[in-house]
Amino acid sequence: MRWASAILFAALAAAQTRQVALTFDDAPRGGDSPSGRQLTATLTLTQELIRQLDQIPATIFANPGQARELSEEGVDQILRLWHDSGFTLGNHTFSHADLNKIPLAEYQAEILRAEPALRRGRGGAPSRYFRHTFLRTGSNGEIRDALTAFLTEHKLIAAPVTMDGSDWLFARVYATWARATADPAGFRRRYLDYLDQQISYAEQAALALFQRPIAHILLLHVNQLNADSMPDLLALLARRGYSVIALEQALRDAAYQSRDDYAGPEGLSWLRRWAYTRSIPLPPEPVEPADILSAYRKQR
Length: 300
Ligand SMILES: [Zn+2]
Prior knowledge:
CATH topology: TIM Barrel
Bound molecules: zinc ion
Helix content: 40-55%
Order of helices and strands: HEHEHEHEHEEHHEHEHHH
Number of helices: 11
Mean pLDDT: 93
CATH class: Alpha Beta
């Protein structure tokens, strides 16, 4: 029995040391319906997420110029609200520019153009973190290396992603389909089931690459689905033994010093980039449920 309980305690201790940092992209946003673009809806969604994330560290990657329906004052109000509630604000370009579609110089200008609003949001401090839009880091080696050098020059740390539950896709469908079928709770369970599968996948991929659990970085977005799912999402992470840590702390994991030689158009998870670099085969990632994927495609 002693052995059994020693093993059990060791397993519990290992489970409890699992760590994940939460990142929310595309702020300020107010939801996926047309009315969600207005300031009131944006404020409400922001406040809901902030309330749910009470005392939980998270990094919010913002595009100050994406929400065209909001005035500059409106954007400032939302960014200040995140910052004043204790969250870290990161740069996600001014208007969610796509590096695969515009010249590098324009993309770099987009990064710089986001800074004045972000600095106002933080009471003057510059950004420390940058998140590549669509996780696209450069369609060839030349662009990728030039952007990396640009980020270093501007003291911006790129924030990788190792866990991704396609919440943006589920959220788009949630706005209409789940309400039409009058079962939003059932839809949210399916979203979290898929996230659960992606967490398992990320854990297995990390073990294949590093032979140990790593501190993960979860990609989420500011959307109504996450606001409505947050208590259950946090419970899911806790059930799987995760404590939520700050991005800064996650990045101290040596895994994030790994070489990344991937240069191409795809917006890959960093686990896949490291696997590519070291020629380690990973199984394909879990795919989203077919009916939700097709509902998403019909909406586009
Ligand atoms: Zn984004």
